[in-house]
Amino acid sequence: MRSILVVGASRGLGASLVKAYAAESGNKVFGTTRSSSPHNSTSNITYIHGIDVAKEEAGRNLVTHVHNLGFKFDVVIITAGYFGTESFDEPSWEKEITMYTTSSIAPVFLVHHLVKAGLINDGGKIILAAKSHEPHFPLPTLDQPGFMRTEMTKSVGFDQYWDAGGAVTPEESAESLTEFIEKFDIGMTGEYWAPRGPRDIGTAEPVLGKGLPTPLKLPW
After folding, report:
1. Would you call 198 exposed, middle or buried from its count of C-beta atoms within 10 A (0-12, 13-18, 19+)?
2. pTM of the predicted model, to two decimals?
3. What is the per-residue DSSP string for the chain?
4. pLDDT band for position 134 (50/70/90)?
5. Tell me: the pLDDT tens digits for 41-99?
6. In this predicted structure, which of 103-112, 162-171, 210-219 has the lowest mean pLDDT?
7. Cα angle at 77 between 163 and 107, to 5 degrees?
8. Inter-residue contact 185 to 131 (CB < 8 Å)
9. Strands 73-78 vs 2-7: parallel, antiparallel or unpaired
């Protein structure tokens, strides 16, 4: 039996990853949420409520919950993110702090606490599904899940670009990401990948050239 942890499982890509992994027999899936409603655990899905990655205690709280459940993880996917709208004319200090805290700082501490508590199985995989700013430390592999039709992109007005930008549903993104994770190995540690290839990176061909492979390794 494989144990999978999805951090940020309340909606969007995280919720779709939980469903995708739970559909495979033999998987035990855990998903974190900030609140307790409306996510109810099932026979092979366990929700860990009250994990707010923007808070310093998130990693410690997660470890406490997991210890009580008695599991270790084969796959950890951190999808929690925040996308705030701003401009160069009107930059937002608060939104920048929230974006960096959620997407860059929090993963460092989450992974630290999980590893130091011995909650990652030998050969375990840690994947950061980046949504805004990326953390810079060498443990996991970083993935660009692509432009998605989610509440996050809609909330900042990007739904007007869904069709022109080839936005995919969270379910489609989850499918390509899970396929990529199956092929992921230690040789790819610390790298940045686009599982769906150049079609999800608008500037890929102008910067990297034509005939790019899928999945696509990105420079960073």
Report:
1. buried
2. 0.83
3. -EEEEEES-SSHHHHHHHHHHHTSTTEEEEEE-SS-SS----SSEEEE----TTSTTHHHHHHHHHHHHT--EEEEEE---------SSS--HHHHHHHHIIIIIHHHHHHHHHHHTT-EEEEEEEEEE-SSS----SSSEEE----B-SHHHHHTTGGGGTTTTT-B-HHHHHHHHHHHHHH--GGGTT-EEETTGGGG-TTHHHHH-SS--SSEEEP-
4. very low
5. 778 999 999 999 999 999 999 999 999 888 999 999 998 877 777 889 999 999 889 88
6. 162-171
7. 105
8. no
9. parallel
CB atoms within 10 A of CB 107: 25
pLDDT digits (tens, 9 = 90+) for 202-217: 778 889 999 999 988 8
Question: Which amino acid is located at 13 in the chain?
Answer: L
